[in-house]
Sequence to fold (263 residues):
Amino acid sequence: MDMVVNELDGGVTNVVLRGRLDTNGAEAIDLRFSVIAGSKRAVVVDLSEVDFLASLGIRVLLTSAKAVQRKGGKLAIVTPEGNVLMVLKTAGIETLIPIFQERDAAIAAVGS
Amino acid sequence: MPASDATSSRERRLLLCADLGELDRLGAFARDIGRDERLNGDQIFALELCLEEAVANIIMHGGPGEHAGKHIAVTIMRGAPSLMVCLEDDGGPFDPTAVPPPKVAASLEEARVGGMGVHLIRKLCTDMRYERVAGRNRLTLIFGPRADRPA
Fold:
């Protein structure tokens, strides 16, 4: 599981995950992800290159989204594909964390 | 007893230590079987995810201390048109079928974190059964044709 973080214009933090966000993948990024969620107010999580998602990965996303929201910020998920999107929907995440199919829309939504 | 068709029923088995580091081997096993059985990509994903969630639960709920299980046996049986997975472990009693469905949260603030693994298994397999047999947990998952698979 790879995690690349870069700062975009407008104070938006872009987190790109690559690989398998499975049980072990989630453990591998958990600490770094919590640090971002604890310190940033506008976060876009790019899941387009994530090809597997398990419940522990959902836990990391949900915990982080809650932490960002507690500070009055916003976290959005962008472009999850196929079965990763299916898992997010099955877990009821799309009603809790906004999921965008276009990057610009996600950036605009968290950056306001 | 009627003669059975040997080619329509196959069985494959994987023995795992009760350690999260074993999940990579489990995933490779599921994908390998999926390819051999000519399952499509969505079916392989569902099989792999259910196995990962079920085994991770066994490892995380089987301990700690004297109740910790040491081994998990995964047996996959092909009996067209369905696939049956049997997971047996020597940990303390843990019945995932008794785990209540997650509460639907009205907002992110109210959302409870966790408990999603069993929910995903329920949604992605056709049937899930649990028995406690001779001091072991036995969880059976059936993957069969069904009309209400989530899109």
